Structure formats: C-alpha cells, structure tokens
Amino acid sequence: MATTTTTPPDSTASTTSTISSQSYPISLPQQSSLPLLFVQVTRLRDSVLLCLGSPTSSTSSFALMNDFSVAFPPMKYPRSNTTTSTATPLSRSTPQSLLLSNKLAKRYRTQIYLSLDLASFSAAASSSSLNGELDPMLWFEVEKGLLNVLDHVLEKANLKP
Q: Annotated region Disordered: where (predicted)?
C-alpha cells in the first residue's frame, strides 16, 4: 500500500483572522443625572459591530439588534470624483441609527453594523427627549462621546485613515 502526502499550494496559505470585542463607557459632560452609556466594539475582519446602549440596572440586559442598521463605506467610481455610501436598516431602525451608521462608515472607511438600545437612556432623559428620540443637543453629546472612544479604539486597528 502506498501513502501519498499532498501539500496545499502556496495560494491557499493559511491566514489568521481575529475577532476582538471590548466595552467602553461613553462620557457625557454635564449630564450626571443620566445613566451611563456603553459601547461594545467588536472588530471583525473587514467590518465593525457597535452596540450602543444603557442598561437601567445591573440586572437588566441590552436589547441587541432592536434598532439595527448597516452602512457601507463610500465607493469611489473610477470615471468620476463622486463617492457614494449607503446605510440600510436590518430591523426596525430609527433615522438616528441610519444617519449615525452612515457617518461612521464614511469616517472610518469600513463597513459598520450599529445596534442602538437607547430606550432606557431616553426614558431617563425624558426632559431631554422628544417623541421618544433624544433631544438633538443630547444626541450631539452622545455622538461626540462615541467618536472620542472610536477614534482611540479604531485608530489602533488601523481603520482610521
């Protein structure tokens, strides 16, 4: 009996793929009465999954993918100088989710999955909430805090230009 050994061609060399996940608090200046916001950043091979929310207590859980969208980075067409990007809902998505995921995909030039759970945060911020959505000034602070975290975290992953 003869045994044969085959070696895979060089074109199928093994690659390493890592997935990392870490949670970070988002600081909101001058909003000490509001609950803490956290973002969980999961770095995938060619994309990033962000889960942004605030549990109301230590026993409550995050409603993952309740408000879920995905955005693709801008594509440059070879015959023009225009760039286009797109965001699409993957579940019931608010305009805030779609706009934020699109903005992040443009900024970091990578595919962004964004899951928002701001229900408990919005309830605590009822004086700063309009029709269940955050007041624009408070939303601006949330975005700014998120960008501060992501600039630090994603820059390490070489996702920021």
A: 1-23
Percent helix, strand and coil across the chain, each to the nearest 5: 30, 30, 40
Q: Are 97 and 114 in contact (CB under 8 A)?
A: yes
Question: Which is nearest to 28 in space by CA: 134, 109, 102?
Answer: 134
Distance between CA 98 and CA 103 in Å, rounded? 9
Secondary structure (3-state) at 70: strand
Q: What is the pTM of this model?
A: 0.74
| CB 116, CB 49: distance < 8 Å | no
Model confidence over 32-50: pLDDT tens digits?
677 788 999 999 888 999 9
Instruction: Please check whether residue 26 is in contact with residue 149, taking contact to mean a CB–CB distance below 8 angstroms.
Output: yes
- Determine the straight-line distance between the first and last CA of the chain, rounded to whole angstroms: 58
**Which CATH number is 37-156's, of 3.40.50, 3.30.230, 1.10.1060, 2.40.160?**
3.30.230
Distances (CA, A) of 145 to 18, 61, 78, 95: 26, 22, 35, 19
